[in-house]
Amino acid sequence: MTSVQDKTRPIHVCVVSIALSTAFGSVSVSLERRSAQDQKASGTTYSSKRTADGKQWTTDNLDVNTMPSYCYEDAELNCRRYGRLYTWESARRGCQSLGDGWRLPTDDEWREIAKHYGGVSEDSDDRGKAAYKALLAGGSSGFNALLGGGRSDDGQYARLEAHGFYWTASESDPASGWFYNFGRGGQALHRQSGGEKQMAVSVRCVRE
């Protein structure tokens, strides 16, 4: 069993076998150099921006209904506000469904964008505080990360408005992946391994 945790309230996740049925869609994306309104597979719009690392990142949490994915507490209003929560595999497929080179960012890509704004806790003197502030919604980067919480593989939701967890495409072992954790309590951005692939968290997409 693996825990995604801060000092007070852990989310416990464990590995289960889930049969995946994924519907793929393709979209036509037109981007300006700095930012643009793009088209989701669902037909609504999302924003993207070329950030300090030189890559194009989405600046909304992914909200494409790729199975398995979830609205926090199964409430559609939360999907509209925070995006959907994805397992590791559905996160990869969700970004790919946008077409035109969009993909789930790697651990290195997340770490690199964080370094441009001060670095994650292990890479910075301030323990990830500057990067947290810059990358969070309303911060100087325009990245607009959200504290969307997460879902354990047994269906338990937790940490809304306390943590923003984001998948990377990088595995830490065959059953788990690297993820990034915006922690409101410590006002810091952390890089973490051991996220069980069947937990569901938020997603951003990137392209060159």
Q: What is the topology, as strand order, of the major beta sheet?
A: 3-4-5-13
Largest sheet: 4 strands, antiparallel
Per DSSP, the total helix count is 4
Structural class computed from helices and strand pairing: alpha+beta
Residue windows where pLDDT falls under 50 for at least 5 positions: 1-42
The residue-averaged pLDDT reads 84
Radius of gyration: 16 Å
Share in β-strands: 25-35%
Roughly how many Å apart are the termini?
36 Å
Name its key features.
globular, disordered N terminus, 4 helices, 208 residues, 3-stranded antiparallel beta sheet, alpha+beta
Brief overview:
By secondary structure, the chain is an alpha+beta fold. It has one domain (62-207). The protein has 4 helices and 13 strands.
Report on this structure:
With 208 residues, the protein is α+β, with helices and mostly antiparallel strands. Helices cover 15% and strands 30% of the residues. The strands form 5 sheets. Strands 3-4-5-13 form a 4-stranded antiparallel β-sheet, with no helix packed on it. The protein has a 3-stranded antiparallel β-sheet with strand order 10-11-12, sandwiched between helices. The longest helix has 9 residues, at 88-96. It is globular and about 40 Å long. The model is unreliable at 1-42 (pLDDT under 50).
